[in-house]
Design brief:
globular; mainly alpha; 0% strand; 308 residues; 10 helices
């Protein structure tokens, strides 16, 4: 894209943003790698400190840019890159976990990791597809206002989704370690405890959304969100069933069967899109929300049955 913009093909106003993105992307990816490496090594405090440093630096830079009325997309990428770079430099100075590179083993280790990682990558692509397709279906059949309602309600359920993502970073290496050290019994124990955590926290969040209705959404986004409580509740339920699917997925990863996750994701995506196609015309935003729940439930059931 940068090359095309440089020679005058495509919107040239994107050129500064693409140059800054070229700078920011490598350090942001390095930050993500070191963060996940810390989780895998059970250095949870290190990962949290890195996230806190990045968040504080980004917010400080953005607030300063806003105060000086200088906030632009290129400078936003600069803020992302600088904050990630500082966190990465700090990691290498402290070196909480040693890194050793052996050139002659690089190819072999790449092959070993790719034999597992290709299935994880494929599952991630298929699993995320619904999140991108559903808003477009809603926009095509209805209008941008409906898509905005869906996005706003999704912001509320995203609070629970962020918690689920955080627990997953802990759960993945923990499940691997439990199965390696204690076999099936150890894996079952870890997944059971994580399941209880999800039921109490994410389930409790669903109860909260159900009891408060549209109060939080109206307070955040205004009167346009009056009556959207049921949609927010259904989207929260989608996060809940997806958290249960994540339990099964981590179990399948732990026993080195990542390819079976892809089968579950394909089944979930197909049922999600079919449900959305059937309900989007008549039910609008609620139909899309119901489709998300159906997809998550299918994923949870297929993964659980496969793991069992």
């Amino acid at each position: 894209l940068l090359g095309l913009n440089t020679i005058g093909i495509g919107p040239t106003e994107l050129t500064p943003s693409l140059w800054m993105l070229l700078f920011a992307s490598p350090v942001c990816l390095l930050h993500t790698f070191l963060r996940n490496f810390s989780f895998a090594a059970f250095q949870f405090r290190v990962a949290v400190v890195m996230d806190v440093v990045v968040a504080i630096l980004q917010m400080t830079i953005l607030v300063a840019l806003v105060q000086m009325e200088m906030l632009t997309v290129p400078l936003l990428f600069v803020a992302m890159g600088v904050s990630s770079l500082v966190a990465c430099i700090g990691w290498f100075i402290i070196r909480p976990e040693p890194l050793t590179y052996v050139r002659k083993l690089v190819l072999r280790h790449w092959q070993e990791n790719w034999s597992f990682g290709r299935w994880a990558l494929a599952s991630h692509i298929v699993g995320c597809a619904g999140n991108y397709v559903l808003p477009w279906m809603l926009a095509i059949v209805h209008d941008q206002a409906a898509t905005g309602t869906y996005a706003g309600c999704g912001k509320l359920s995203a609070l629970a989704a962020t918690f689920v993502a955080g627990v997953t970073h802990y759960l993945s290496p923990k499940a691997f370690a439990a199965f390696t050290e204690h076999g099936v019994a150890g894996l079952k124990r870890v997944l059971f405890i994580a399941g209880i955590v999800f039921v109490v926290t994410v389930g409790g969040f669903c109860v909260f959304v159900g009891l408060t209705g549209d109060v939080v959404l109206v307070a955040l986004f205004g009167d346009d969100f009056v009556g959207t409580g049921p949609v927010a509740l259904v989207l929260s339920l989608a996060v809940f069933v997806n958290s249960l699917a994540i339990l099964g997925g981590n179990g399948l990863w732990a026993i080195n069967r990542p390819e079976t996750n892809l089968i579950s994701d394909i089944a979930a995506l197909v049922l999600t899109l079919l449900t959305a196609a059937l309900l989007v015309q008549s039910r609008g935003v609620m139909g899309i929300a119901i489709a998300a729940v159906v997809g998550g439930a299918v994923g949870a059931v297929v993964r659980g049955a496969t793991l069992a």
